[in-house]
Amino acid sequence: MVAMSEIRLHGARAAQRALASASAERRSEALHALSHRLAEAAQAIEAAQAADLAQAQAEALAPALLQRLALPASKRQVLQQGIRDLIGARDPVGRVLRRTELASGLVLTQVSHPIGVVLVIFESRPDAAVQIGSLAIRSGNAVVLKGGREARRSVGLLVDLMRQSLVSVGLDPDAIQSIEGRAEVAELLTQDRLIDLVIPRGSSELVRSIQNQTRIPVLGHADGVCHVYLDAAAEPAMAERIVLDAKCDAPSACNAVETLLVHRAFVPRFRPLLEALDRAGVRLFGDEEIVGLALKVEPADESAWGTEYGALALSIRVVSSMEEAIEHIHRHGSSHTDAIVTEDVDVAELFLSQVDSASVFHNASPRFADGQRYGLGAELGISTGRVHARGPVGIEGLLTTKWLLRGQGQGASEFGPGKKHYTHRVLDPD
Questions:
Q1: Exposed, middle or buried, 71 (CB in 10 Å: 0-12/13-18/19+)?
Q2: Residues 338/226, Cβ–Cβ less than 8 Å
Q3: Residue 407 CB: number of other CB atoms within 10 A?
Q4: pLDDT at residue 223, as a whole number
Q5: Across 143-168, average pLDDT
Q6: Are 339 and 229 in contact (CB under 8 A)?
Q7: Average per-residue pLDDT in the chain?
Q8: 339 pairs with which residues across the strands?
Q9: φ/ψ of residue 182, rounded to 5
Q10: Residue 178 — very low, low, confident or very high, per pLDDT cuts 50/70/90?
């Protein structure tokens, strides 16, 4: 017997192929329709949100998940702007990447092409449904969305709006689907012939669980253990601004700082920053030198250096050099985002080149590691892997390539010693 999930995936595959072959204008029309529907459905969205939030609060959902669950008007405006940015951007499908004349009358073209059917699993964060759904529509992919139980009403309504938008312009709504329940997720994770990519967005436990259950390629990051290193030449006022932003702007975000590394030469100027963190309500864990600076710093054990708090808590360690800071980052970090604060440009350039993370910053908060802030439009998520995509992943993460060969009846046997020869002449891709 064919499982219901397999039937749905065959429908998603057919819808995806139709969407990929649709014109850029038609996919843009679907996005225009979605933007209008989001505005028109404001009251319905607020009602679904109220019900989800009430249930989540009654069930004592963790504060970080409650924060991600909320979809206020300000977030919806950001979603609509992201959709407008996608509409205004160059169409990503069929973009010519290279053209080569293999021989006279034989031209090979490499073009961008949708990946296919993508399964996205996320906790809370109903805005992720719209971000990923709009990226899928623009890039000609089908997406199956699995939101958390706590966001069931909100995600269900948003998926309905996306499906209605596809129907309104004559496209197959099965390009956007949603599922509920862990059993169906487990079944989908076995469908490596029908699903091309899995994107988990949530806790490290969620990501690792998905990676352990499937043979399908997984794009994501398991941890967000981000560092800020205060160099000997750090400017104290700048250091305070960056660290407070990195820890306090959105403590539950994966790009929030979790460990602060302080050059020993900066320690005499460090106490005001410690006091500012304390005033901001940050719980501080430090090594022996840091504990000696302030009464409110708790001793850090070895596990602190690899901890992603996702809250107003911070580990602090003193180092003797930039090299020691980098060694610490490589040993305990998650290759997400790491930053240096220094006025020494040469030291900064060495840090930028030597730290092996997806994003590395100089004199800027790691909170900038975000697809929208990078100008990518909506964001699929963050990848700390090295294959396919790395760092904040936008629409390019939903694309692969396709080769198109246009000939005049040639056969491969016509080429070789004493026969026709290949020219391999590079042509203008435009």
A1: buried
A2: yes
A3: 12
A4: 83
A5: 95
A6: yes
A7: 93
A8: 228, 361
A9: -70, -30
A10: very high
User: Which amino acid is located at 366 in the chain?
Assistant: P
Question: Tokens 């404001």 appear where?
Answer: 42
* Cα torsion angle, 114, 116, 122, 124, sign: positive
Neighbours of 387 (CB within 10 A): 8
Report the pLDDT value the prediction gives residue 1, as an integer from 0 to 100. 35
Burial 196-207 (b: 16+ CB within 10 A, else e): bbbbbbbbbebb
Percent of the chain with pLDDT over 90: 77
**Tokens standing for 178?**
């949603």
Number of CB atoms found within 10 A of residue 2's CB? 7
In 3D, which of 310, 245, 252, 229 has the Cα closest to residue 280?
245
Nearest to residue 19, comparing CAs of 169, 127, 157?
A: 169
pLDDT digits (tens, 9 = 90+) for 1-16: 346 678 889 999 999 9
Alpha-carbon gap, residue 280 to 368, rounded angstroms: 20
| pLDDT tens digit sequence for 273-314 | 999 999 999 999 999 999 988 778 999 999 999 999 989 999
